[in-house]
Write a structure and sequence with these properties.
mainly alpha; 7 helices; 41% helix
Length: 148
């Protein structure tokens, strides 16, 4: 059911409609508070929207817990973060492109390695030797019990 039909149905039934976040509402603050660049900033193209990845506004900015945040230092779980990424990025294609995607998918968020809103994702330009060095740096920080 499309959003237009859903909202029309709610109006006909006299129910209150849910508050749908719009990209314009998000960008009023987030464009001003930082840059939104790169592929993931192309709102409107290829189905990208703030809400598609971060969730409905639901009281944000006062209720910051309502949204999905990306990276290691967030309260959003790895599973929630990666589920959002996998809506667009095929697990099979990721595995075929780089074996580490498959190994880390349930333990490490995509955003732990990939940056979502800079002009370019630093991982994209790394050669094999530099990618290996990135692995060594991360794994050397783990204790023996953490590596499985």
């Amino acid at each position: 059911m499309s959003k237009t039909v859903f909202i029309s149905l709610i109006a006909v039934l006299g129910l209150s409609a849910p508050v749908w976040a719009s990209d314009d509402a998000c960008m009023r603050c987030h464009k001003r508070n930082g840059t939104m660049e790169g592929l993931h900033s192309q709102i409107g193209s290829k189905g990208l929207s703030c809400v598609r990845c971060h969730g409905e506004q639901d009281g944000h900015p006062r209720n910051k817990e309502a949204l999905v945040y990306f990276g290691d230092d967030t309260k959003s779980t790895v599973a929630d973060q990666n589920a959002n990424c996998l809506r667009c990025h095929s697990a099979t294609k990721l595995r075929d492109a780089e074996w580490t995607h498959d190994v880390h998918q349930t333990r490490v968020s995509c955003a732990a390695c990939h940056q979502l809103h800079p002009a370019t994702d630093p991982m994209q330009g790394l050669n094999e030797k530099a990618r290996t060095q990135t692995c060594v740096e991360c794994h050397s920080q783990l204790t023996t019990g953490e590596v499985k």
